[in-house]
Amino acid sequence: MKTSKKLALSYLVLLLCFLLSLLLGRYPLSIGDIINILLGKDSGSMSANVFYNIRLLRSAEVLLAGMALSLAGYLYQSAFHNALVSPDTLGVSGGASVGAIVAILFFEGGFLTRQIFSFFGGILAVLLSLLLAKLIGENRRMSLLLSGVICEALMNSLIMALKYFADPMTQLAVIDYWLMGSFSLINRSKLLSTAVPVIPAIIICILMRHRFKALLLNEEEGASLGVRMPLLYLACIVLSTLLTASVVSVSGIVSWIGLLAPHIVSVLFRSSFEETLCLSLPIGASFLLIADILSRTLSAAEIPVSILTSFLGAILLFIFLFLKRRKAL
């Protein structure tokens, strides 16, 4: 299948998922309702309020979060030559969460403060994982996974320690619910605080996709081609961590998207590096939109989105790995 057809199909699926996200919820809307709202016929109505102030903002935030996490996951996997690396397994999500909680508890952090602390928390988690992997040595892929598990455990212990100091009446419940991932409290300022760093980072990654292909080479091969591999690794880690932290600081931990989206692309399409990078964006966003729709429609009380992404992600990843093994036999 040609690249243009792959992109057209994946973005068509994304458009359908985005439309369903606008329609479905506790207050259902019809396509006719949305058309009337956009034409200004129902301005001031309950439907218009739900559409503009709740449903549209939330769907846009979910779309950006899905794109950001899937792109970050694929860049991490390419940089570390490990298909099981993601913001979750490297401890980046946990590190970003620690930074955000520190901002909330001790600096009365607004969105900007929370994002800055999340970014540096994520960067420190990546550096810690790389340092531990180097000390462990042996097989590079296995040592990186082990160091990621250790780093994530350390981040979780810090999160529990910080929760111990939280006010149980005002802060603890909010932090607990936030850590499970939720898009229920999205407003214009939160959407803007996500869009400002995420959209430029995505554009930069797309423009640099041909250069990032050198991540698949080892350092000696890259250097022989004139590529400054240390700078390329630094750019990859900074952009990936920025994408992850921008989502975590607003919506909490959203698991599995960064790990799963590239695997979905590899199973559905036989794609080059550049194609996979571009296709991961709509695939990850579509998957997260579906999970968010389920989170607010399966029960009367909204289900934290990470519960669904983890459940669905684990099942899908097992299926994909099983299919890959069958093909290899």
If you had to describe this structure to a student in words, what would you say it looks like?
Helix 1 packs antiparallel against helix 3 (about 45-80), helix 5 packs across helix 11 and helix 8 runs antiparallel to helix 11 (about 230-250). Helices cover about 75% and strands about 0% of the residues. The chain contains 14 helices and no strands. It has helices at about 5-25, 30-40, 45-80, 90-105, 110-135, 140-165, 170-180, 190-205, 210, 220-225, 230-250, 255-270, 275-295, 305-329. It has one domain: ABC transporter involved in vitamin B12 uptake, BtuC (Orthogonal Bundle), CATH 1.10.3470.10. With about 325 residues, it is mainly α. The two termini are about 25 Å apart. The mean pLDDT is about 85.
- The helix content, as a percent range, equals over 70%
The number of helical elements comes to 14
Give me the count of strands.
0
CATH architectural type: Orthogonal Bundle
CA-based gyration radius: 20 Å
User: Which CATH class?
Assistant: Mainly Alpha
Q: Could you give me the name of the CATH homologous superfamily?
A: ABC transporter involved in vitamin B12 uptake, BtuC
Instruction: Sketch the topology as an H/E string, one letter per element.
Output: HHHHHHHHHHHHHH
Mean pLDDT: 86
Major sheet characteristics:
none
Strand content: under 5%
CATH topology: ABC transporter involved in vitamin B12 uptake, BtuC
Going by helix content, strand content and strand pairing, the class is: mainly alpha
Point out poorly predicted stretches.
none
Shape: globular
